Every structure is written in C-alpha cells, then in structure tokens.
Amino acid sequence: MKINIIIGDITESDCDAIVNAANKELRGGSGVCGAIFKKAGWDILQKECYEKGPIKTGEAIETKGYNIKAKYIIHTAGPIYFNYSKEESKRLLSNSYLNSMKLADKLGLKSIAFPSISTGVYGYPIEEASKIALETIYNYKPETLELVEIVCFDKNTFNEYNKNAR
Ligand code: AR6
After folding, report:
1. Domains of the chain: which residue ranges?
2. Which CATH architecture does the domain made up of 2-163 adopt?
3. For ligand 1, is residue 18 a contact (CB within 6 Å)?
4. N or C: which terminal CB in the chain sees fewer CB atoms within 10 Å?
5. What pLDDT sits at residue 97?
C-alpha cells in the first residue's frame, strides 16, 4: 500500500473516499468538516449523517460523497485531546485511522484520503498525532486499499508528518 503525504484541500481529492474529522454527533462543524459539508451540500449530507449517527470516538461510518468527487465520505470522530489520558487519546486516535481504513476495505475501495484528525479544534499536538497516524497506517494490512493519502492543510502539518515518514 502506497502512502503519500501531500499539501492540499481534501475536498479536491481524487481518492475513492475522503475522511471527515467529525464529531460524535456527526453535526456539520468548522475546519475540515465545514469544508466537506459545504462542498458536498450541507443539508443533504447532514440528513444522512443524522440518520447514521451518533458514533463513538474512534468509530467510523460512511456516507455518499454527494457533490464531492470522492464516492464516499468516511466520518470518524477523533478524540478531544484534553478529555482523556495521553494513553487513551493515543488509542482513540489510532482507532479513528484504523476503523476508517477497515471500512474502506469493506467497501472495496482502492484509495482513501485522511486529514490530520484531531489536530485542529480538538487540540491534539501535531508532533504526537502525526506519529500515531503514520504508525497506524504503516502497520495496517490492507485488503483492497492500494493508496493512503494524508492531506495536510498547512506547511507545519506537512513538515511534521514528513519527519515521521519512512
Ligand atoms: N483539507 C484538509 N485539511 C484541512 C482542511 C481541508 N479543506 N481544512 C482544515 N484542515 P479540524 P479536529 C485541517 O479542526 O481537530 C469540527 O468542528 C486543519 O488545518 O478540522 O479533528 C468538527 O465538526 C487541521 O490540520 O478537526 C469537530 O467538531 C486538521 O484539518 C471538530 O472540528 C483538523 O482540524 C474536529 O476537530
């Protein structure tokens, strides 16, 4: 499985699925979530999200992509960093990546794009989060997935992921 770290806007991704850094209620929000909702079509995406939610932290569910190029949007709720111990945050963040990739495999997808989950509003330090994200992706044994893209929105995030890239 190929792993690409890029700078960009995840709503423009050519991957089969893009991942939304969601909240447990699957309510449209700010940050990457807001960008995805806006582009997909806020009301129509919110309707499917409310039918499928709420979810637990670290879980993942899929919706259609609507007006986004990607066929699916995979919604996962990362941990709010200050709500948990360091160990529990790590486990939950890793689960968000793991369950999203498992779901993509279950859907028979070849490619998935991740944002940097929990490192915005949810306050996860990027130095730690990037290590956990990459460790989880490198250790994953894919079924149908051939490509994982990590789409960084800013240079600092991009640099941090690259520090931990193999
Ligand atoms: N493409 C890629 N990455 C982006 C984009 C984009 N278009 N826009 C922002 N980012 P955040 P969280 C980056 O706060 O910390 C929402 O309200 C951003 O720069 O979006 O998991 C949800 O509804 C940062 O590096 O997600 C939840 O309530 C990264 O995406 C809550 O925020 C994640 O930042 C989730 O917080």
Report:
1. 2-163
2. 3-Layer(aba) Sandwich (3.40)
3. no
4. C
5. 99
- Residue whose CA is closest, atom 5 of ligand 1? 32
Residue owning the nearest CA to atom 3 of ligand 1: 153
Q: Each residue of 15-55: pLDDT tens digit?
A: 999 999 999 999 999 999 999 999 999 999 999 999 999 99
Cα 2 to middle of ligand 1, angstroms: 24
19 Cβ closer than 6 Å to some ligand 1 atom: no
Cα(120) to centroid of ligand 1, in Å? 5
**What pLDDT, in 10s, does the model give residues 75-89?**
999 999 999 999 999
109: CA distance to ligand 1 center in Å? 23
pTM: 0.99
